[in-house]
Amino acid sequence: MKQLIFIIVIIAICISINADVLAKVKFGNWDRWDEELPSWNNEGWDLERCRLTFVGFPYIRRTLIWLPVEEGRTYVLAVSGTESIDNTFFLLTHLSFIKDRKSQASIILFSPATAGKNVEGVKCNNSVLNSAKFAIVAFPPDKKEIVMRVYENENGLFHLLEEWSVAFQNKTIIIPEKTVKYSQKYEEFVSQSQQLNNQNITVSSSSIILIVRDDKKKEFNLGVSLEILDGKKIITPIFY
Known about the structure:
By secondary structure, the chain is of the alpha+beta class. It has 2 domains: 1-32; 35-239, no CATH class. The chain has helices at residues 2-28, 126-131, 183-195; strands spanning 51-56, 65-68, 75-78, 88-100, 103-112, 134-138, 145-154, 157-167, 172-173, 202-214, 219-230, 233-235, 238-239. Strands 2, 3, 9, 10, 11, 12 and 13 form a 7-stranded antiparallel beta sheet that branches. Strands 1-4-5-6-7-8 form a 6-stranded antiparallel beta sheet. The longest helix has 27 residues, at 2-28. The chain is globular and about 50 Å long.
């Protein structure tokens, strides 16, 4: 009897170890992301550095925005604005999945503006993560290309919808309208989000773009570029 109990305990330990190893193998290898995103409690997520961006107009305080300047065609950083989410179209959640010190994936989640009601500052919480409609993942660049994947939230699990590659260049449009099927769903999401905004403004176009910070080190951000028509004035901020 004691031998039988001992054997059962050993088997249970082996099953537990194998399950843990398989989980790490599945999400530690980028090729294994061809079905769904890892759960938020996976140790690879860098939730400590996760942050939110409130996409809307007038701007929400503490939101990082690049604004084009007419003279010199340079960019400035704007961080001022109001505190109300009534001006918000939708929320961006920026986070990373760290494979090792030299390799990590960058992710942005798209959530409805209502997800920001109970948010303090720009830190993430489970409510925002779970409320996201879809996620865009940029994997580590390979030479001059970068692999992109889009995942859609289905009952709390983010399932893969589409994969494609784009050039690793500054201001590259992440979702090319002519080649990526998901571009239509993205346009619908932006259109519906704008209708919920009470401000008398129009978003005439929106693009998800690649912002290359350092080409040699392959450092980059993902951002959203909007063309906003405010009366007769056109504004083109980049939220990141």
